[in-house]
Design goal:
Order of helices and strands: EEEEHEHEEEEEHEHEHE
Shape: globular
Structural class: alpha/beta
Mean pLDDT: 95
Number of helices: 5
């Protein structure tokens, strides 16, 4: 991180990964049948971008929760959540722990015929986390809409790249070139019939930023 502290990333599958920073265990969209969630460190913070089955699984969150765990989610997920949670809509900010800052940003589709997947009016969330002075953008399910393209001062960006539900390779390239993160992780790819051309994505961003591909399929 910018302050010299360490951020450790653990990748599970699809849109699910974890971050460890300053003793805090942070889980994002924790879903994955092949993951032994009960063997992992307990969560201090759980982020849920929206209520779709590949992002929100109540039993998994219950397995991960430690005493005092904070769950941050969008308003649709909050309606289905069975315990206390912090409900966020785009534009809201929260600081669940000292040194952990979260800002919710809009996540929605704009392509013709795709807007029902993640409509803007539902107010699904992406999140910008600040840990140790480093900003990490977790986009959730979105396309390269004007709110995404307006983001600035992002150090690490996680952008979804699969069709027909999120970004095309071209949209992801457009978003990365606009946001200009230092590091870009493509995620939320695979698990659909139309394969994402990760090689083409990496090639198109040569010289733009560091692209780190991890096995998220």
């Amino acid at each position: 991180a910018r302050d010299g502290s360490k951020i450790t990333l653990t990748f599970f599958a699809h849109a699910s990964f974890a971050m460890e920073w300053n003793g805090h265990h942070i889980y994002v969209d924790s879903v994955g049948e092949g993951v032994k969630w009960d063997k992992l460190p307990k969560a201090d913070l759980v982020l849920v971008t929206h209520s779709h089955y590949d992002h929100f699984d109540m039993p998994t969150i219950e397995t991960l929760q430690a005493a005092g765990c904070v769950v941050v989610c969008d308003k649709t997920t909050a309606e289905a959540f069975e315990h206390d949670c912090v409900t966020m809509t785009p534009g809201m900010e929260s600081e669940p722990f000292e040194g952990v800052h979260i800002k919710a940003v809009p996540a929605y589709n704009i392509s013709e015929g795709h807007t029902d997947f993640h409509p803007q009016a539902r107010e699904d969330c992406g999140y910008v986390l600040t840990l140790g002075g480093t900003t990490i953008y977790v986009a959730g399910d979105t396309e390269d809409n004007e709110d995404v393209l307006a983001l600035r001062d992002i150090d690490v960006a996680f952008l979804p790249v699969n069709q027909p539900y999120t970004m095309t390779v071209e949209q992801a390239v457009n978003a990365v070139k606009s946001i200009r993160p230092l590091v870009f992780y493509p995620y939320h790819y695979g698990q659909v019939e139309q394969k994402t051309d990760i090689d083409a994505l990496v090639a198109a961003l040569d010289g733009v930023c560091e692209v780190r591909v991890r096995p998220m399929e």
